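hey m, so remember when u said the tokens were messed up on ur end? i reran from scratch. heres the input so u can diff it against urs
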Amino acid sequence: MTHRGDGSPHEAVVRARRCDLTVGDTNWAFAQRHRCEIDAHWQRRATDNPSFFNGAILLMESHSLHDGILEARFLRTEFKNYLFWRETGGADSSIADAFGSALIRSSEGHVLLGRQRVGVNAGLAYPPGGFIDERDVGAGGVIDIAGSVAREIEEETGLSPQALERTPGFILTFARPFVSVGVEFRSPLTAERLESRIRDHIGGDPDSELAEILVIKSGRDLEGLAVPSYVRLLIAALFPDR
């Protein structure tokens, strides 16, 4: 099946065996049309949030899923354009906020979420991950999504990806406007030991992106927790019998 714009599934969790992601040279027409409004919006938001940085990020402009293979095309844009699009209701539905998610599972099978301390998602809890950016783009515009996720694991949690066993394939979660490309890892450590190690990492980093780490054992653990829409869908799929 092919998805673009309103053809994309609104809510779904799908397993894929491969992700072929590339970035092209498309100019985002939405950003060009709203340039003046974006600049005014950015002035206000950057004043309120000095931690915001107007760097280049990648957004998904089209994708298809056939025989377990996700093929997706991304475009480059400035963070201020994304922020305006997101905070004014995502009016351009041809674009998706697609990113890598680290699905770290303890020896018991529990999943780790991190509550964000700063940035546009401050206060929300979700798997370690972040924007796809230029560090993730190689020759020919090919995006290394697995490498992006591995980098985020180390930066946010202090865990070494080499000490984790990667589960083959990807877990894709569609919850418009989000597309989470999940990479699942298994740790030989218990959730308690993982939590302790990550807390030490967070406590030793004054610039940590995370405020705390949370252990999720079932969907019930999300009750009362502020999470993006895709997280509830993802956790329900990871713990179907709980």
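this time it looks ok to me. The radius of gyration is 18 Å. if urs says something different then somethings off w ur setup not the seq
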